[in-house]
Amino acid sequence: MKTAFALLLFLVPVFAADSSGNKEITSVVDSWKSAVLNGDAAALDKLYHADLTYTHSSGKTETKAEAIAASTKPGSLTKAVEILELSPRIYGKTAVVKMKGNLTSADGTVNHLDILMVWIKSAQGWQLVARQSTKLQ
Fold it and tell me: What predicted TM-score, i.e. pTM, was given to this entire model?
């Protein structure tokens, strides 16, 4: 009984830390969503790591500078981002975020996507280092 109680006391902080980490990553994804919707280059610059690889469902891959320019170009802002499923997993200073969602482009096209994001925690906070999306049927 004492062993089970000691094990429970050990595991509670682990689960609590994981929960707060998930909340932190969810908040960062919300910040990314807001920056994309508002065409906020300064926010994206902080959120994107210098080594970013940003791959679209079309297969087009962009660097940090290219991704920011494409996301903030007048007339090309994303109109809506609807996150339907969000599953963050944290491994130390790395977070793998799997999500499904609908992104509405500037021309009104709704893309149903499966997105994988890799975030790393640096001195600047959580930064996106890789993104890959696939169109869903």
Answer: 0.83
